[in-house]
């Protein structure tokens, strides 16, 4: 065992880690916390009853340099205010990946229950050209890039209509679309 190193990995599908056992001589030089890897080997039941992956080959497909601005380091607790600053990386923390799995299971359970009662799930549009409620409280959607809008500008079409060929708004309600399928 003195010639081996142990690497804990996770793919995010479970809160549990899988331990990889690899000889020190086969460890990639630039392996670090948060790296994306490919590991091939044999699953073995360890003496403590857990499953390990014994391998001679670990390939790094993406590095993660903590010293280059990656905000999380191993075995450290971060309060929620800190984690919220990095929205795109939150799922890499155990707490948020657990919340995502819980939300997924809850949503799937509700959908399965409703499906068993012959309900159907309707995905109403997020963008629309309709004001179904007539309230006039619509939010106009257009590309952030003004240069793109200017390059798409056509005669007799306003800038707001140039991207979607009509004015597009965030949907205020799914009512109009749901009414068409209601019986």
UniProtKB/TrEMBL annotation:
Ranges of residues in domain Aminoacyl-tRNA synthetase class II (D/K/N): 85-181
Single GO cellular component term: mitochondrion
Keywords attached to this entry: Aminoacyl-tRNA synthetase, ATP-binding, Ligase, Nucleotide-binding, Protein biosynthesis
Domain OB: 2-61
Record-level Gene Ontology MF annotations: asparagine-tRNA ligase activity; ATP binding; nucleic acid binding
Matching InterPro entries: Aa-tRNA-synt_II, aa-tRNA-synth_II/BPL/LPL, NA-bd_OB-fold, NA-bd_OB_tRNA
Superkingdom: Eukaryota
Protein's UniProt keywords contain Hydrolase: no
Gene3D superfamilies on file: Bira Bifunctional Protein, Domain 2, Nucleic acid-binding proteins
An example Gene Ontology biological process: asparaginyl-tRNA aminoacylation
Matches recorded under PANTHER family: ASPARAGINE--TRNA LIGASE, MITOCHONDRIAL-RELATED (PTHR22594:SF34), ASPARTYL/LYSYL-TRNA SYNTHETASE (PTHR22594)
Protein name per the record: Asparaginyl-tRNA synthetase
Organism: Apis cerana (Indian honeybee)
